[in-house]
Design goal:
By secondary structure, this protein is of the alpha/beta class. It is built from eight helices and eleven strands. The strands form two sheets. It has a six-stranded parallel beta sheet with strand order 2-1-3-4-5-11, with helices on both faces. The radius of gyration is 19 Å and the shape is elongated. It is an enzyme of class 1 (oxidoreductase). Keywords: Amino-acid biosynthesis, Cytoplasm, Diaminopimelate biosynthesis, Lysine biosynthesis, NAD, NADP, Oxidoreductase. This is 4-hydroxy-tetrahydrodipicolinate reductase.
């Protein structure tokens, strides 16, 4: 029976994760609250799930390396330096890092990449609109950025973001991916990818109605990553896509 630890066990996601660990027949190894030493949790766990804050990601990645314990990381809004720290840690221990643990969102990412490969940026403008609850602190969302990266990958180029439009911005740039972030109420998560050409529009939308879908996916990733060799994995690996 796998022993799964939870960083930030007292939070909203932490409580859902604890319930999903029990539902999956795994053992809850324990959890941390703000100020706790993560080394103790990692030493007692076969795998740790982290949905806390972006700034904690390098600390937890280092703890994973020190204990040799795999990490499932779902924090969003990581800086380039924080992502680099996670990638470096993944050369020593298995890490599943995903912007979103919903199976539906990950299928959407795969479809977005294939659509972008067939809809060139010279003819189709790509726009991403996302909405989340009013407490979310980062924008655009990690899932929105992942969608933008999927579009760029499909087109075989680096992501060029066009966001925060305000005032006299001039015409839209060709080949960029536009982002718009909406915040309000208690929306769990909504993402729409729009390809807009002069003769047609194609929209791809995903809506989350319950945060539990993220917890279920993260526990699935945790059970999958136990025993895997060092490396940086994603939900595509977990889902066999």
């Amino acid at each position: 029976m796998a022993r799964i630890g939870i960083a930030g066990i007292g939070g909203r996601m932490g409580k859902l994760l604890a319930e999903e660990i029990a539902a999956a027949g795994a053992a809850l190894a324990g959890g941390t609250a703000r100020g706790d030493d993560p080394a103790v949790l990692f030493a007692a766990s076969d795998v740790v799930i982290d949905f806390t804050h972006a700034h904690a990601a390098p600390v937890h990645a280092a703890a994973a390396v020190a204990a040799g314990t795999p990490l499932v990381l779902g924090s969003s809004g990581l800086s380039d330096a924080e992502e680099a720290a996670v990638r470096d840690a993944a050369s020593h221990v298995a890490i599943v890092y995903a912007a979103n643990f919903s199976p539906g969102v990950n299928l959407m990412l795969a479809i977005a990449e294939r659509m972008a490969a067939s809809l060139p940026g010279a003819d189709y403008d790509a726009e991403i609109v996302e909405m989340h609850h009013r407490q979310k602190v980062d924008a655009p969302s990690g899932t929105a950025v992942a969608l933008g990266r999927a579009v760029a990958a499909g087109r075989g180029e680096a992501l060029r973001m066009e966001s925060g439009r305000d005032g006299h911005t001039g015409p839209r740039q060709t080949g960029t991916v536009g982002f718009a972030a909406l915040r309000g109420g208690q929306v769990v998560g909504e993402h729409t990818l729009l390809f807009a050409a002069g003769s047609e529009h194609i929209a791809l939308t995903h809506r989350s109605f319950d945060r539990r879908v993220y917890a279920t996916g993260a526990v699935r990733a945790a059970l999958w990553v136990v025993g895997k060799p060092p490396g940086l994995y994603g939900m595509k690996d977990v889902l066999g896509m």
